Amino acid sequence: MPLNLMYITNRTDVAKIAESSGVNRIFIDMEYIGKDERQSGMDTVKSHHTVTDITRIRKAITKSEILVRINPIHKKTYDYESSNVEIEKIIDAGADIIMLPMYKTIDEVETFINYVNGRAKVMLLAETVESCNIMDRVLKINEINEIHIGLNDLHLAMKKKFMFELLADGTIENLCYEIKKSNKPFGFGGIARIGYGLLPAEYVIGEHYRLHSTRAILSRAFCNVDKMNNLEEIQKVFQDELIKIRMKEKECEKYSDEDFENNKNTVKRIVKNIVSNM
Fold it and tell me: pLDDT, tens digit, for every residue of 54-86?
């Protein structure tokens, strides 16, 4: 089964291009609480999308699902409204899937589920050490539709230098094995263009197939629209590069156990070289 691909944008023109090129989910990223502090000094995406963006994207697309990442569970303060109010507005705006980041306890997960109350699909973003430690308990909750493992914050929490160290050292493999037993769909991290990235996308895709992951985010390295001059250029990237990704997936579908083992070992070797040079 092809990977369910997600792309972060609040631009309607880009969302239409992504949808027409085969992107399965348009990702609205409303998380901002604590993010600047956690990822200080890192060249990571900090989107600051809003509920209005959900409404605009909802009107612009017809096939792709809308995935919305909310803030971690929180109470109302002077600076921001409560999680309950935030989720109500997101559902009213037309979100299909709501993602909870940075959770650490079962109580947070259950509070999230209660706030959503079956009105959208529920996705958890496991990106803290604590979320990994309670994975067995989380997976017993029927209302959770799917899990995504977030490499950016998780590798920081685990004091790693490079996010794909978690793929090379067995951390992701162990989590994927545990989630797979629950039959809940899951994914991890993001992928760039084929041939691009410190760890080229083709090797990451091979690991998705080896570990039975079915979801991935198309990273900013796949298509950084902020550095492109026109929509024609953006459209060409999406169309051409998604074809390459799907072709690589067809190749992975035919991999033997030996092929997967070779890919795994290549990932380990590349990651070791990257980390040693950091």
Answer: 999 999 999 999 999 999 998 888 778 899 999
Contact 263, 207 (CB under 8 A): yes
Residue 47 has pLDDT above 80, yes or no: no
Over its C-alpha atoms, the chain yields an Rg (Å, rounded) of 18
Helices (H) and strands (E) in the chain — how many of each? 13, 8
CA angle 217, 222, 228 (to 5 degrees): 130
State how far the alpha carbon of 129 is from the alpha carbons of 30, 89, 96, 123, 157, in Å. Answer: 22, 30, 28, 18, 7
Number of domains in the chain: 1
Q: Which helix (H) or strand (E) holds 237?
A: helix 231-253
Q: Give the mean model confidence (pLDDT) for residues 20-29.
A: 97
Query: What range does the domain containing 162 cover?
Result: 4-276
Residue 22 buriedness (CB in 10 A; 0-12 / 13-18 / 19+): middle
CATH of the domain at 130: 3.20.20.60
Q: In this structure, what token pair is assigned to residue 125?
A: 């973003």
